[in-house]
Amino acid sequence: MIAHAGRRAPARRERTSGERRADRAARHAFRSRRVPVGTVAALLLTAAAVIGAIDVIAAMTGASLHVFAYRELIDVRWDGWVTRGICIGLGLVGLVFLLAGLLPGRSRIVPLHGAVPEVVMGVSRRGLRSAVAAAAADAAGVSRVRRVRLRRTRVMVVAETPVHDAQGLDEGVAEAVRECLERIRPLPARAVTVRMKHKEG
User: Fold this and answer.
1) pTM, whole model, 2 decimals?
2) How far is CA 32 from CA 26, 52, 108, 185, in A?
3) Pick from 194, 191, 154, 150: which is nearest to 9 by CA?
4) CB atoms closer than 10 angstroms to residue 30
5) Are the C-beta atoms of residues 54 and 65 closer than 8 Å to each other?
6) Where are the alpha helices (DSSP H) in the chain?
7) For the chain, which terminal residue's Cβ has fewer other Cβ atoms within 10 angstroms, N or C?
8) Which positions of the chain have pLDDT values less than 50?
9) How would CATH label the architecture of 2-30+109-198?
């Protein structure tokens, strides 16, 4: 038997301008920097700059060293499918880098609500999952917490119970998790979904 409970996070009071600035500062401080994508982009740009510099210096000094075979490029058909494929590929790579810079990544740190912009706080995703799992495990009728998943606006908990009639147990677990989130106050506020699965102890 599976019981399910879900309810939106309770409405909060209107936050002051200082608290809103603190929330923005925390989000910015713990935003994913997309280091792997940035590293790849930096390496590609560095390689292109080095190759360009080698060709420019070779042309200035009259040396025969050229990275690009310019004479072969003259004979390339710019309306051919190979050239078009390369252009499309370069365009897609550029689009990936652009989206990586504009869209927020998944940070390992979840920002927390604050009171002043000068003080930002966060909790690791693993730590937040552990806290939620502990709160759910302490709820009445729960024998074990199978899984806790964190989404941007939702926390999903799957718990086991030895009780045959689990009616109402899911709401008790959801309330315990909501109280835990109220104490930690992650950004943004998250709704809670609970699934109870019966399993003999």
Assistant:
1) 0.60
2) 12, 32, 8, 20
3) 191
4) 19
5) yes
6) 17-29, 35-61, 70-74, 81-102, 125-137, 169-184
7) C
8) 7, 9-10
9) 2-Layer Sandwich (3.30)
